[in-house]
Predict the structure.
Amino acid sequence: MAMTRDDFVEEIRANIRRSSTVLADSRIRLWLNWGQNLLSNWHTYEEMKKKYTGTTVASQPDYGFPTNMKDIQSMVINTGDSESRKLIHVPARSFDKIIPRKAQHDEGIPAWYVDYGVNFEVFKIPDDEYTFDLRCSLFPADFNTASADATYDVVSGLLRKDALLSALGTMYGFLSLRELEDATYWKEEYVTTMFQASILGDHVASDWEPIARGFGTGVGSNTAISSYLANPLINGV
């Protein structure tokens, strides 16, 4: 059974050998959050990968990513017909250089998107309501550090990582207490080994094999624009 927030606090407190009279639970919860954040920075685990569905708004180019998003994998616009397509990512500087003023162009079905911070913008500016499907990864939610938190019994969004999270919280605890020898011990003897094991136990897309594809200058019907020369990001039109 997965450990709850208070289970982690009890385990980390036992490891660092400090009673509640000299060390508040809130500090241990903070160390636990630091450990969880560090772990999800190190690796994007399978349980961090999510799918979302959203909707465009006519004449609105800017939209927000999900809260706590780490990386975006792909985004598809669905129009309900053959015009459905994967949006093409364009770097912000390149986009601004060639399309400095989006409003000068006709609205239509978006073909590109610019990833910028917690938001993204699409081009063309939508002329209607379209559904988009987003594949991305999310950082797990922090454990609330408040003692009276109603969700005290929540578990980590990282699956099967309880021992590793306890070790990371313990490592941060000893670092904060300036007991560097113990911090190094927990890092080298526990964190490193368990992190490597967590990578080996992560989901692998084993049902995949490379397929050689011939080169061609033609484009399919589901591409953003049927002609290379008609692409405003190519010729600046």
In short: The chain has six helices and eight strands.
